[in-house]
Amino acid sequence: MILAQVAAAARSAAALPLTLAVAAVDVDAEAEAEAEAVAAVAAVDADGDAGVGTGAGAGGGASGTAARAGVGGSAVGVDDTVVLPVASASKLLLLAEVARRLDAGELRADAVVPIEDEDVAGGTGLLRRLSRGGACGWTVEDLAWLTASVSDNTATNALLRTVGLPATERLARELGLDRLTLHDRVRDVRGPGVPPVFATGTARDLARLVALAVRGDLVTPGASARLLGWMRSNTDHGLVPALVQHDPYAECFPDSLPGGLLVANKTGTDTGVRADAGVLIGTRRVAYAVIAHWDVALGPSTERAAVHAIREVGRALAAGALRGEPATCALLRPSGG
């Protein structure tokens, strides 16, 4: 995959002070590397007495080899460990915790959550504009769909209040996403005494979160599939997928579309920030995250350069997803409710 070179070129082409953090994981290459490692261990274990004597050591060595293959052969990054504001792309972590609870039976999809005054926030979303109003409340599933599809800030706050910020932090640590953090609820104004930004994270952690879901390893296959389904409903394809031909409505998702490309993602927008994390499904499945951060004092031309750079990275990501052998591993779909 030539993503690293393309990302560096896109950043250089901006010709402005601009941080462009990029991470991508070829999910199928990771699975292939792990399968090869398991086969190697099995071969050693089957090799008579020598296998019995060295099986434990071989297992450790094979695991290390798979990890190295994952870093070197299936994952690439540019500034992917730099902690940056990630805006609403971080809502993936909240949705992951909601999906985990639904799958574990700790939360009911049809449980009604009332909308409190403190939940109501401006910016993106539809909830506060709908005639139904907050008194009736909305189900957990409704709030998740609104958060994923239109990044509804009021729905986000209601879900955050339901599960609690500490739960999202705990899940992030359990998944090894040590630098992805939701700091606060969404606020219209940030002043003294509150965190300066909604969330921070790295491109690597966001891409890893998506990769876990694509592989079915986001705690459980059911939680993974539920999160991907919500991501698939996102209506903002203006960043990474913008210049890439793809089908936003194909029913076969998360299976591949013969000869085509599918996208499931979550974007984020804030002052001086554009972010996009998701998966491109072609002949291969590529999980990605791209974060652009710049000084707004430089004017609107910097924002245009940032968007252009992200879209160029999207071209490289699509090329990576459309190469090689067809992906054969499909996730289980959620069973409902």
Describe it.
The protein has 337 residues and is α+β, with helices and mostly antiparallel strands. It is 44% helix and 15% strand. The protein is built from ten helices and ten strands. The chain has helices spanning 3-14, 27-45, 48-72, 91-104, 140-150, 153-163, 165-174, 203-215, 221-232, 300-321; strands spanning 18-26, 75-78, 84-85, 112-113, 138-139, 181-182, 199-201, 262-270, 273-281, 285-294. Strands 2-1-10-9-8 form a five-stranded antiparallel β-sheet, with helices on both faces. Helix 2 runs antiparallel to helix 3, helix 4 (91-104) runs antiparallel to helix 5 and helix 8 packs across helix 9. The relative contact order is 0.18. Residues 49-73 and 325-337 have low confidence and may be disordered.
What are the secondary-structure elements, in order, as H or E?
HEHHEEHEEHHHEEHHEEEH
**Global mean pLDDT:** 83
Strand order of the largest sheet: 2-1-10-9-8
Q: Which spans of ≥5 residues are poorly predicted at pLDDT below 50?
A: 49-73, 325-337
Q: In one word, what is the shape?
A: globular
Class by SSE composition: alpha+beta
Beta-strand content bin: 15-25%
> How is the main sheet built?
5 strands, antiparallel
Radius of gyration using CA atoms only: 21 Å
Number of strands: 10
What is the distance, rounded to the nearest whole angstrom, between the alpha carbons of the first and last residues?
39 Å
Q: Helical proportion?
A: 40-55%
Treating each run of at least 4 consecutive H or I residues as one helix, how many helices?
10
